[in-house]
Amino acid sequence: MSGPNRRAIQKEETRRAVLDAAREEFERVGFESANLRSIAARAGVSAGTVLHYYGDKRELLHAALFDDLDATWRAALGNLGSGPLENQLSRLTAAVFGYYQARPKLSRTLLKESLFADEPWASKFAAQIASVTVEITRLAARAIERGELREDCNTALLAAAWVSFFHFGQISWAQGAYPTPVSLIDHLVRQHLQGLRPVEKQPSTRRAR
Amino acid sequence: MSGPNRRAIQKEETRRAVLDAAREEFERVGFESANLRSIAARAGVSAGTVLHYYGDKRELLHAALFDDLDATWRAALGNLGSGPLENQLSRLTAAVFGYYQARPKLSRTLLKESLFADEPWASKFAAQIASVTVEITRLAARAIERGELREDCNTALLAAAWVSFFHFGQISWAQGAYPTPVSLIDHLVRQHLQGLRPVEKQPSTRRAR
Predict the structure, then answer these.
(1) Omega before residue B198 within 30° of 0, cis
(2) Closest Cα in chain B, distance from residue A117 (Å)
(3) What is the C-alpha to C-alpha distance for residues B51 and B37, in angstroms, rounded to an integer?
(4) Do A45 and A130 belong together in one domain?
(5) Closest Cα partner for B143 from B130, B155, B157?
(6) Are A16 and A65 part of one and the same domain?
(7) What is the mean pLDDT of each run of 10 residues along chain B (209 residues)?
(8) Domain carrying residue B152
(9) ipTM value of the model?
(10) Within a 10 A sphere around the Cβ of A81, how many other Cβ atoms?
(11) Which UniProt keywords apply (chains A, B) (predicted)?
């Protein structure tokens, strides 16, 4: 392998080691108490190297969390099965909350930062949730085709409702009000879908459920 | 008037002057850039006096915002009219957003802090939203009595849905995604209420609307 290639690989390995160390340290002591020297020591590099890659602690937090959370969303969206929509949304909720619940300390910080980050992270987190919204809109359109939802169902508004319930679950959980928000979110989604089901005008033609 | 009474009144006036000055300064330059000396100067007191009452800038932020926001919620809840529920919820949304929209800079900070504050403010903000939730549950129970909602409507879940949509509107607005979230929230509430309307099983007995 040539020298430049090896250097590129080493660079990438260093980056990964720093991000892994950062996630461990943030989860262990919380964002406020975490310091760059401990993270550098954990990653086996100098504090200067960490600063060279990430500038400061907040930048490091975003880099460590964003990629990780992004991978979680992608994996969850790729594993929703074929329906009904209610089950697909429940799977999505459970998968993303699994990520949060495995990292309780980190997630509180993540949540605060993802909802109220400064640029460029504000745009990145906004794009992340926008792509989730687009995907739910598509899932809802397929649910209309399957006859699960009414033809005139506003799919974009349904997606916004799911994001609303999801944020509510996140916030309630981070505040300590609900230890298991997944079931709360499922109930809110079910109640919301009630009004979007096809109207069965003629009881004689009602489908078996 | 006796000396001690006059001192108590002066104290209260000083507190109010400091809180007013803090709100103005936070809105003018943002929470991060605001400094205690400018606030003290604006209130006509020493920085030591401000620190004596409020300890630090974050404490001052919470004291300045919480009372103000609390008064806004109380006034809004006291002025919802007699129904229908959909209109009452729309009035509540508009009144509280009126407060935010009149103070755009302050509100972004307020939002971040009210959703993710540390104690004792976390409990105070949680109690504030809990009392709103209780009030919406009551309004929904009256809507059931009026025949607007089904008998088996879960009023607590409906209240949680309203809070979800309200937070979603707040967050979207603070992120700059929706300049006018009130109408978005109204649409989400309307869609949610669709499934909670009484089932009109017998067209011949359908009420006039």
Answers:
(1) no
(2) 9
(3) 10
(4) no
(5) B155
(6) no
(7) 77 91 90 90 94 89 84 93 94 92 81 75 84 95 94 94 94 81 94 84 39
(8) 61-209
(9) 0.83
(10) 8
(11) DNA-binding
